[in-house]
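[Solved] Which block belongs to which protein?

Original post:
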Amino acid sequence: MCKQGEGRRLICVTQRSACPDDFLTRVGLIIAQRPARIILREKGLSPEEYEALAQKLLPLCEKYGVPLMCNGPVPSFTLPGCGAQLSFQNRGLPVSGEFGVSVHAPEEAAALQESNVAYLIAGHVFPTDCKKGVPPRGLEFLQKVCQNARQPVYAIGGITPERVPSVLQAGAAGYCVMSALMKAPDPVRLIQEFYSQEETIHEL
């Protein structure tokens, strides 16, 4: 059974292309709400552009005690001060700090039980525009991943505030949000809605 994480359960995954306003300002507001992590997912950048963007975010993340996880060009996996988010296929790449691995099957979670990966991201759980035409794996899939994992598991894919209680009841330590936080007119208010739903799990 996966371990429960400590503190906030929200991981923000960035997507500059979906951001209607200044990206750095928006992510700065999100970081100030102290989510569990920020995953910098900007695969369209060159390694140099990606590193420059990470270096702009790192001081803010350090100020608020929020780990910055890199998920971009391969050199980003060794950026000083940053962790890394790896695919299951790339789980053996050398990294400079803490790292997480994305999984898409319970068997993958089981295969990582003896590794030093810090957490897993499992998805996609619900329908999402990021995976149009691809059927979601559902809460039963999430529950099986959690049962096969030693590390904390974070759900991804179509997570809304209303779905948070069911995700946590399935055994997840938390959840990831990308498009919604990048597009929301008021990302701070949306984060507070997510945090409010985290509290309901204790009331059920």
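(Second protein starts here: sequence line, then its structure tokens.)
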Amino acid sequence: MKKAALHNLGCKVNAYETESMQQMLEAAGYEIVPFDQKADVYVINTCSVTNIADRKSRQMIHRAKKQNPASVVVAAGCYVQTSKEQAEADEAIDILIGNNKKHQLPQMLEAFFAEKSGKKTEVVNIAEDKSYENLTVSRTAEHTRAFIKVQDGCNQFCSYCIIPYARGRVRSRELSDVLREVEALAKNGYREVVLTGIHLSSYGVDNNENLLHLIREVHQIEGIERIRLGSLEPKIVTEEFARSLSQLPKVCPHFHLSLQSGCDATLKRMNRKYTCEEYALGCELLRKYFAHPAITTDVIVGFPGETEEEFETTREFLKKIGFFEIHIFKYSVRKGTKAAEMKEQVPEEIKAKRSDILFDDLVPMNHAFLEWYIGKEAEVLMEEKVTFSGKEYFLGHTKEYVKMAVPYTENMENKLVTGKVKGMLKEHILLLEENLH
């Protein structure tokens, strides 16, 4: 029996695809081993969102070949898609598989072992490929929460982003396929699903569907008790969208609305398709229909041309909204994007300073959000046993994705526990006073 090891780089969509490839290899008779062990086949699902991601992808490819020079190294995904010529010239890579072709992994390995010579490449022109690649999973690495890929590709072409060139145009998964997979996961004991995609808000624009209808259909599946959404574009949050979601009790009030900048001038250079006023309206609607929604976001500091005044405008906008969490990124030049050619690139030391300022600003926002729970009851889906200061606890997340823990008395994995929040156990983790189930 041949041994295979897989390594994932990048986003949740990539992670889903890596798990699908692993299950394909298992079905084909491979034994799956950890990536740091000797294997006959190494599969690296690459990322290309930044130049650094490209470099990490190459490093993992070369690490695999070094671990076993006789192995077959498979490079799959976004780096292969955006840098095909460079990947084909890399002697450490035996098989190249671009996006939309990962389902061919077992067959390509079979052909490679049969012929025993020559590099094999399967990379299509992703901009012209209109098909949705049907990958599936029956289980995931997490035992309580399953990520479900429902959409691929992006039509937005933000000036800093390479993803439309790596993933192609928007392609949506057929509703019936999504529901079959969710039903199978529910039968395998999963109680929470996360609907995810490259540009989730665009789900259905190519097949006469829409995200709200998809959510309503998943909501009807027995056994699924929580539905969480991946990153959303701000303008999807209309009055109807927010009101409709609030009427579906399984929907988690945890909304990641991608912002990137709190300054309209910067947003325009980024080619983002909304204004700060439109973004703020979406947040107001969510807070109108949900009691205490967790609103999280992404922000890029040091985008080309960002002045001190623009940065301060962003800073004040973030405080005005009051986020639960903010993922703060220093702008990274990505070759092949319009932003990489823009003048007035911001020096790295200024990016670092601005990033530190926003991290400091986030602390009181985060604390204020968490303190709201103290003295209230909360429901937590338990996930894992942990130890803090020598004491054992079981840790999980609320629907808002707030971490909470109860003192360990038994294995509570995948159980829903309701309790009263006593206070802060440690930074970012709240303590449930008692178990009321």
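Accepted answer:
You had them paired correctly. Confirming on the second one: The mean pLDDT is 96.
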